[in-house]
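job 3f2a | input accepted
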Amino acid sequence: MVRAFNLIRPLVFPAALLLLLEGWARTAGQGSDAIAPPTSALRAFVSSISNGSLFVATGFTLGSAALGLLIGSALGISLGTVLGLSTRAARVGSLTIQMLRPVPSVALIPLAMLVFGFGPGMEVSVVGFATFWPMLVLTQAATRQVDPQLLEVARALQLSPLKRFVSIVLPSSVPRLFVALRLGAAIALVVAVTVEIAANPHGMGYALMVAQQSLDPALMLSWLFWIGMVGFAVNAGTLRLQRWVARRMGEAQP
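job 3f2a | predicted structure (254 res):
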């Protein structure tokens, strides 16, 4: 009984909000072009599933976000490791990083459109830029926390930079890197949807804009709820992956 209550308790507040919205939309807000009852949004959601538009748009957004995150993470982890291990490299690159990091990723949309045109390339490039910086900064901070004695042993053994990274830096930095990964995954999804709303005629963000321009609040709300559910699922997935890797690393300890 207690376990069932603990499972249901997190749903109480969202359910109450949905009930309030349903009541308001059917009374004072009836006929509104901006708000629709959640039951109407549910019917629009089911319709999106039946005609396949939900899966096409979701696949495009998640694919672009994942590819951008992969590129941004690979570059951010690589450069962050170099900057974390080398104080000289950190000093040389500090000014450039501090100038480029505050640039909003959406400010690159016009440039990305000129280079890649409409489509996945434009969206992936903007997502990659947005996710590069948190991965860089957090990887650099994580690398600096590695025990200096371990690095001295690696130098004494004359390990190559790649071997040093795989054998020492990466295992010591994994917990912090997963924090960066979770942050990067959230940023990737937000930026991907934002790019689609602003410029790219594909994906969930574009579907949301089409619903808004068509004065279809039920469909618009269904897309809003679905984007929130996708974001929740992405965060939960990265958290489960983090726990799985931590458990495997713990089992690997002698």
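job 3f2a | Residues 145 and 183 are 19 Å apart (CA to CA).
job 3f2a | closed
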